[in-house]
Every structure is written in structure tokens, then in C-alpha cells.
Amino acid sequence: MSEFDWLVVGAGLTGATLAERIASQLGQSVLVVDRRPHIAGNVYDELDGDGIRVHRYGAHIFHTSSERVWSYLSRFTTWVGYEHRVLASVGGRLVPLPFNLNTLDMLFPAPDAAHLTGLLVNTFGESSRVPVLKLIDHPTPELSELGRFVYDQVFLNYTAKQWGRRPEELDPSVTGRVPVLVSRDDRYFRDKHQALPAEGYTTMVARMLDHPLITVATSTDYAAAASSVKHRRVVYTGPIDEYFSGVYGPLPYRSLRFEHERLPTGPHQPVSVVNYPNEHDYTRILEHRHFAGGSSWAGASTITREYPDEYRPGDNEPFYPLPAEASHQAYRRYADLRDETEPDTVFAGRLAKYRYLDMDQAVNLALQAFDRRICCAVPA
Ligand SMILES: Cc1cc2nc3c(=O)[nH]c(=O)nc-3n(C[C@H](O)[C@H](O)[C@H](O)COP(=O)(O)OP(=O)(O)OC[C@H]3O[C@@H](n4cnc5c(N)ncnc54)[C@H](O)[C@@H]3O)c2cc1C
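That is the input. Now the predicted structure with flavin-adenine dinucleotide docked in place:
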């Protein structure tokens, strides 16, 4: 039976960060297993037959304001600057998202747009970010109507498709996060660093795992590895409910189905991501070639339609924890069980924490878990 100091379950960004830190900083051996046939978890990308880098699990745009995360990942990749811009199909037009002053100009007659712009700037100030519910509740009738318009045209049906539930069944924060931007800055993110790894996420993760003390086994489940490999400690980045054999029932997740299509010519759309709040069963289309820069090209293109789906354990992937009070309570029961029974196992990442994490948050939390739970933990 082979022997390792650590068994890391999951070769996504969280597992790769922790494995890299343990091997390079502590000089301890690590076996990283993933049940999928590839490394990198949800950030997995690969070149298709046309040489187009395809994000197999949906558009992944790296953005961070954390210098620690930026400098850590920059050891494993160089970057290509990329500022994400999203369009939404509303009223037969493609308009910028999040809803901003340019969106207003495109959807309203010029005199109305100018009037509303003046009202927004005078009421909230240039460059402010106004939650849509605040706008709906505003005493000025025109602002309240604008809020209702944004809610109905951009948010309501998209949310119903995305979650398979009405907004009142979800955390109020889901609606509360929808902003109207009093600005003409069409960028989707505002972080200091916005970029894509020059040779893709999979290459970056492969470099993180490329250490003499790290062994990687894909298509390998935790249960199989745990019974066949000796190890002292475990880092677990899989679903926490599965770890405890679902004793309190399954945690609710939303899944996605990705439909990839090769088009003989492109571009299919002007930007990488177009949202469809009100039409179709899919929520958005991603056109991968935009990530390589330039908006006009000759030759083939690959697009991906993203269909939200119920999560069926064993059949599809758990992508998004359901943002609802009942799910948070269900997670707390598992977290209490973890604290009582598994003090030595390190639970980390989006599935073990039952929390949506952007990539930079996943890496940041993994670095913190290393500092606090593995490297420098002070004995009680
Ligand atoms: C559609 C979509 C779009 C996204 N877009 C962005 C974006 O634009 N920008 C951004 O910053 N973030 C984005 N994210 C978030 C990003 O995907 C996550 O931050 C990141 O994947 C978290 O990494 P992780 O290692 O925690 O989880 P994962 O990548 O899910 O890795 C966990 C791994 O554990 C494996 N595993 C689970 N259980 C077991 C088991 N029992 N045995 C063996 N292996 C197991 C899984 O197969 C998986 O590969 C997006 C997420 C989704 C779903």
C-alpha cells in the first residue's frame, strides 16, 4: 500500500493551492485525487479541434483586488488582460449589463433617457451603484418605475430560469445584489486585476501541481483512495453532505447543462457573454474566441449555451448552492457535525463550505486555511 502524508480530495483551485503549499512549504508528500477525468475542477479549459480554448464549465473570468492572490497565482502563469463586458437581449436589442446609463440610452427615447439620467445622477451621485429594490422603493415615481422596469426586464425571468424558483423563495440578498449603475463604465467587474491565464486555467493548475512531492490521480474517488492509500491527514474539497453520507439529507444545489456547438464561421455575437433574461430555456451564450481578443475573425467559432437544471446527485454536477435560508440552516447542521467529529480534516472550497466562491476567493481562503489549519496552527 503506498503512503502519503496528505490526501487532498479535489484537484480544483482549492485542492491545487493547498497541495502546492503543503508540498513546497512543508516538504510533505501529497496525493491529489479527483473523480473527474481531468484536473482544475470547474475552471477546466482545453483547446478544441479549431485551436479555440473552450471553458468546459462556463465562462471563467479572473478578477481580483487581492495582491496576495494575484502574486501567488502569477508564479504559475502569465496573464492576458481581459475586461469582461456582458450584453443582455432586452426588447429585441443587445444592451450592456449591469444596467447603466448606456443601457438607459439604448432602451428609452432620448428625452426620457436624458431626464432619468439627470434624476439618477442628482439623487444618487455619479458612479454610484443603486440596488434595484432601493430604486423600486424610491418616492420619486419615475425612479420607482425605472426600478420596476429593470426588475421585470433584466432580473425576474432570468432568476426564475437560473434558480427554478421565484425571487421570494430565495435570499433577499439575491435581489438586493442587482444593481443599477449611475455610470457609463460598461465593464462587468471593477477589480484592479482582470485577466485570463495566457495558456489557460488547466495549464496554470497543472503547474501548481507539478512538484516532486505531489502525485495526481484523476478519475479516482475519495472513497477508493481512502481505502487503498495510507495517509496521515485529509484535505477535503468535495460536497460536505456527501462526506457525511447525507445523514441530514442532501444539500440543495442548482446544476447546469452546457451545450457546446461548433459554428463554421464567427463571430456569433459581439462579446463573449450574452444573457437571455426573457427568451429561450438557456440563460446565456458564451462565445469562447472572444477570450483570445479581437471581435472580428475569419473561420470557425465555438459557442456554449448554458441551461440551468435541477441537481441530480450522481447524474450531474452541483454548481451553485441554493441561496435560501433553509439551505444555510441545513449546511449549519453539517458544519456542526464536522466540528464535533472531524477536527483534523481540513474542509475547504466551494463544495465543502457550501458557498459560492469566485476563483480569487477560493484561492485566498485556501491560502488562509494553509496558514491557520496546516502550516502554522498554534496548538490549543
Ligand atoms: C458556471 C460558473 C461560472 C463561474 N465563473 C466564474 C468567473 O467568471 N469568475 C470567478 O472568479 N469564478 C467563477 N466561478 C467560480 C469558480 O468555478 C470557483 O471559484 C472554483 O471552481 C472553486 O474551486 P474549488 O476547487 O473550490 O471547487 P471545484 O473546482 O468544484 O473543485 C472541486 C473538485 O472536487 C472534486 N470532487 C468532489 N468530490 C469528490 C470526491 N468524493 N472524490 C474525488 N473528487 C471529488 C470535483 O470533481 C471537483 O473537480 C464560476 C462557477 C461556475 C459554476
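The chain has two domains: 3-82+194-250+321-375, 102-181.
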